[in-house]
Amino acid sequence: MTSVQSDYSLYRDVIRDLLSGKEQLPSLPSITFEIRNAMEQQDLSMSELGRLLAKDAELSAVLLKYASSPLVGSQNPPNNLLDVIRLLGMNQVERITMVHSIKSLFSVHSVKHKRLYLEAWRRLALKASVSTYIAKHMHFKNVLPDNVLMAALLSEVGTLAVLSAFKDAEQTPDVPAYVALCREYAKSLGVITLKQWQVDEQYIKVVQGIGNWSGESPGAPNLGDLINLGLYHSLKLSNAKTDLPPIQELTAYQKLEAPENSVVAGGLTFVMSNVQEIKIVAKSLF
């Protein structure tokens, strides 16, 4: 027990170095900033954006794969980047670029590190898939569907930052220690990282409220409510050993109206009845 406690204390010291600025937080690739800057120009054409995207072959492949995935469900899958931009729209292309950029930040450094990394991305993909499915089904007035995938991803940047802290460490934490570190530090690391990346304030608010099942959230269902519903169901579907409250106690659930608030097997009926479809989309995401 003493050894475990000592190890965890060392892990905490590594994370605190990140929080204090002694170690550098992950930063986005230059191509991501190029695309974001270009998107701020009102006269940017699809052809110009396509040429910019083509500078990164891996990103181009990711965009083509995403636009051809079940998540998009197009009858005419795209053949080139211009088709992708026409199908998804410039704003969604920018968001998918961010998804790819964030994933590319977190390279693996050992077998143990890779195991944690893959597990983190599996959880993230399921959460993003559930959140997107709920968004498409519910049509919340205060939520733009195109923002959901981005919000689901950015809400987990802190958990990935925790993992990135150990890239040069001789010892990588095991799963229980990693989960404990995420519970203790992921939210703080996520907020700091997103502010450094200068993302929209709405995504920072999502991070601040993630996992706060009964927190105050006045008004109609918002992006944070939706992502919390996605997180809740992803934890339930992944059989995570988490003490989840009954769904009826969630602030986000209490904003739902019939028939969408129907519950079966501890989750929303329309989610729990379409688990296989949701998992297929999750596999196609990442």
Task: Walk me through what this model shows.
This protein is mainly α. 64% of the residues lie in helices and 1% in strands. The protein is built from 15 helices and two strands. It has helices at 2-20, 30-39, 46-53, 57-67, 81-88, 90-105, 111-138, 145-154, 157-164, 175-197, 201-209, 223-237, 251-254, 269-272, 275-285; strands at residues 263-264, 267-268. It has a two-stranded antiparallel ribbon with strand order 1-2. Strand 1 (263-264) and strand 2 (267-268) form a beta hairpin. Helix 7 (111-138) crosses helix 12 (223-237), helix 7 (111-138) crosses helix 15 (275-285) and helix 9 crosses helix 10. It starts with a helix and ends with a helix. 37% of the residues are buried. The model has no long low-confidence stretch (mean pLDDT 86).
Keywords:
286 residues, mainly alpha, two-stranded antiparallel sheet, 15 helices, 64% helix, globular
Write the layout of secondary structure elements.
Layout (H helix, E strand, L loop, with lengths): L1 H19 L9 H10 L6 H8 L3 H11 L13 H8 L1 H16 L5 H28 L6 H10 L2 H8 L10 H23 L3 H9 L13 H15 L13 H4 L8 E2 L2 E2 H4 L2 H11 L1
Helix pairs in contact: 1-10, 2-6, 3-5, 4-5, 4-6, 5-6, 6-8, 7-8, 7-12, 7-15, 8-12, 9-10, 10-11, 11-12
The total of helices stands at: 15
H/E element string?
HHHHHHHHHHHHHEEHH
| Beta-strand residue percentage | under 5%
Instruction: Flag low-confidence runs.
Output: none
User: Major sheet, described briefly?
Assistant: 2 strands, antiparallel
Mean pLDDT: 86
Globally, the shape reads globular
Radius of gyration: 19 Å
In the sheet with the most strands, the strands line up as 1-2
Share in helix: 55-70%
End-to-end Cα distance, whole Å, is 37 Å
* Structural classification: mainly alpha
